Amino acid sequence: MTVAATAIIHPHVHLGEAAQVEDYVILGVVPQAGTDQELETHIGRSATIRSHTVIYAGNRIGDGFQTGHHVLIREANRIGDQVSIGSGSRIEHHVTIASRVRLHSNVFVPEYTVLEEGCWLGPGVVLTNCLHPLCPQAKRCLKGPRIGAGAIIGAHATILPSLIIGERALVGAGAVVTRDVEPGMVVVGPQAAPLKRMDELTCQYGLMDHPYPGLKT
Amino acid sequence: MTVAATAIIHPHVHLGEAAQVEDYVILGVVPQAGTDQELETHIGRSATIRSHTVIYAGNRIGDGFQTGHHVLIREANRIGDQVSIGSGSRIEHHVTIASRVRLHSNVFVPEYTVLEEGCWLGPGVVLTNCLHPLCPQAKRCLKGPRIGAGAIIGAHATILPSLIIGERALVGAGAVVTRDVEPGMVVVGPQAAPLKRMDELTCQYGLMDHPYPGLKT
Amino acid sequence: MTVAATAIIHPHVHLGEAAQVEDYVILGVVPQAGTDQELETHIGRSATIRSHTVIYAGNRIGDGFQTGHHVLIREANRIGDQVSIGSGSRIEHHVTIASRVRLHSNVFVPEYTVLEEGCWLGPGVVLTNCLHPLCPQAKRCLKGPRIGAGAIIGAHATILPSLIIGERALVGAGAVVTRDVEPGMVVVGPQAAPLKRMDELTCQYGLMDHPYPGLKT
Fold first, then answer.
1. Which ranges of C22-154 would DSSP assign to H, the alpha helix?
2. pLDDT tens digits for A104-142?
3. pTM of the predicted protein model
4. What is the 3-state secondary structure (H, E, C) of A70-93?
5. Contacts of A132 in chain B (CB under 8 A)
6. What are the beta bridge partners of residue A73?
7. What is the pLDDT of residue A37?
8. C14 CA to chain B: closest CA distance, Å?
9. Which residues pair with C108 in a beta bridge?
């Protein structure tokens, strides 16, 4: 294990073997609205936590975890194995992230989001969980999106609350998704209109027949 | 008052009682284009300044101020009471923020913006203040938007320079606002077209008649 | 040269005269997939590296370099003179940035991007370099956009991979650019449709005949 001298590790943090924790990282921050209960933080083997990252207490994170720089992960999340969170991304609390999920840089993930196995979120993606902010009942209906297994959310896309993005769907860069997306569908534009099916995509560089061969049925 | 050992507090910073300043925070940074005058920084009572946040000198901030992590606040802003600035948000200089304003994560607020009482900016919102960047006269016409009292700017929206968003209007997530928005209007999409009035919104979860009851006239 | 006591400068970093390095900066981080070769980092004269910024090893940066706060610059980039990278922006590796380029806050620049002389990227701009993420051949076709000399990319715009934005073109705020943009053209909206030519823009404040006088032919 390699922990930089300037890293601050609060009590009740359990770091697996071969972890690397870089400078100015803070691990195990107790949430302000904390309970009396001591919040344990578990991070699996071979983690790399890059500089200036902040991870709250009460997370349970699998093996092979990686963060970029300046990442924020709030409390009470469940994160699988081989997950990567890009630089500048912010994960709120009570988020479920399955194994092999990758978030690129500057992504925002609100509370009660579910990211399924191996999905990919591009740089600058913003997910949301509240249809009517400032509504006096807003806390009763917070619900993030569910991003299906292997789905790809293009750079800078916006996903409205509680929507379901189907397995292996692709949301185009800059799209604004305002309704559910069917599995294996490519959607683009300001209302995320269906464009084609994933198995109809072709490689414009001629490197292969099809960029997602596993989808071909 | 609780100030972390690694927090750096420059001279002329006045922190009110019961302030909490977390690790790797820097308060009272003197702007490079500084004047001869010593810039005082006032932060009111019960502030919580979370880790890795940077606040410049020359700010006057009210009581109950909160920042998330990795926040930047430049010089010469006027900020009211009970204001919250989310993680990763950047506030430029000469911004006016009234009381009870809340900015979520990763918001960008340029110089000469006005945020009125109790307005709400969602994650990833970008405001602008310059119609023609690189114009040799650009510094003479910089003007940020004015966001009216109680207005809601949905996640990831973009607001063009100098626009006025009326009181208690709602800008949909991902919208690009290219003209003024009337008070109490809901606008959506790539040109922020009017969709309906705020008092026509309904709760899709059946939790209440109307998400913004104070608006019902 | 002024280097803050908390700044961490790794070996093989060469800082020119009159550099200012602020608190909690880290310079010369060796990439994980490092080579046996020692990576030299060169930063020219009169650099200002603001707090919490991270710059990897293997960069070659000109004179007058400025970063905002919380910036990330990965390895193996070539950066000219008088370049400014705004707060919270992230530059990946193998990026070419010519002299006098300015990136505003929270910009994302992927690997293999080319930013030509004096171009300007507004706050929250996201460039991309991969048309089909998760494609097994994706690493073979990564190609960022090329932003022409003097081009202006408006706030919060999204640029798709490998596109060419012509010299002194202007991409409107919030636009999503899905095909090449001709030199001197103004494009706006969710498919970045051509709106007019740069030399047809007028100053709405009456401060001058034309915001981009050098363009008038």
1. 138-141
2. 999 999 999 999 999 999 999 999 999 999 999 999 999
3. 0.97
4. CCEECCCCEECCCCEECCCCEECC
5. 201, 203, 211-212
6. A55, A91
7. 65
8. 23
9. C90, C126
ipTM above 0.90, yes or no: yes
Pairwise CB contact (< 8 Å): A26 & B51: yes
Name every residue whose Cβ is closer than 8 Å to that of residue A136 and which is 6 or more positions away in sequence: B208, B213
Contact: C212, B135; criterion CB under 8 Å: yes
Of the candidates A16, A13, A22, A24, the one whose C-alpha atom is nearest the C-alpha of residue A81 is A16
User: Using CB atoms, which residue from A69, A155, A189 is nearest to C190?
Assistant: A189
- C155/B90 Cα distance (integer angstroms): 14
Cβ atoms of residues C113 and C131 within 8 Å: no
Q: What are the DSSP E strand ranges found in A48-184?
A: 48-49, 54-56, 60-61, 66-67, 72-73, 78-79, 84-85, 90-91, 96-97, 102-103, 108-109, 114-115, 120-121, 126-127, 146-147, 152-153, 158-159, 164-165, 170-171, 176-177
**Closest CA relative to residue C172, chosen from C191, C151, C187:** C187
Q: Name the β-bridge partners of B48.
A: B20, B66
For residues A172 and C199, what is the distance between their CA atoms, to the nearest angstrom? Answer: 32
Confidence (pLDDT) at C47: 98
Alpha-carbon gap, residue A63 to C39, rounded angstroms: 30
Measured between beta carbons, the chain C residues lying within 8 angstroms of B176 are: 156, 173-174, 189
| One-letter amino acid of C53 | T
* CA dist., res. B3 & res. B32, Å (int): 26
Per-residue pLDDT of B136-171, as tens digits, reads 999 999 999 999 999 999 999 999 999 999 999 999
Residues of C with CB under 8 A from a CB of B: 6, 23-24, 48, 51-52, 68-70, 87-88, 105-106, 118, 120, 122-124, 150, 152, 154-156, 173-174, 189-190, 201, 203-205, 207-208, 211-213
Instruction: Break chain A down into helix, strand, coil percent, rounded to 5.
Output: 5, 30, 65
Token pair for residue C214? 């050098």
Q: Please name the amino acid found at residue C4.
A: A
Rounded Cα–Cα distance for residues B149 and C129 (Å): 40
Here the tokens at position A107 are 């992504």
What value, to the nearest 5°, has the Cα angle with vertex A89 and ends A88 and A95? 155
Distance CA A207, CA C143 (A): 14
User: 């998760």: which residue's tokens?
Assistant: C134
Q: Is residue A152 helix, strand or coil? A: strand
Cβ proximity of C28 and C57 under 8 Å = yes
With CB atoms and an 8 Å threshold, state whether A137 touches B211: yes
The structure tokens listed for B180 are 């003024």
Cross-chain CB nearest to B51 (options A54, A133, A160): A54
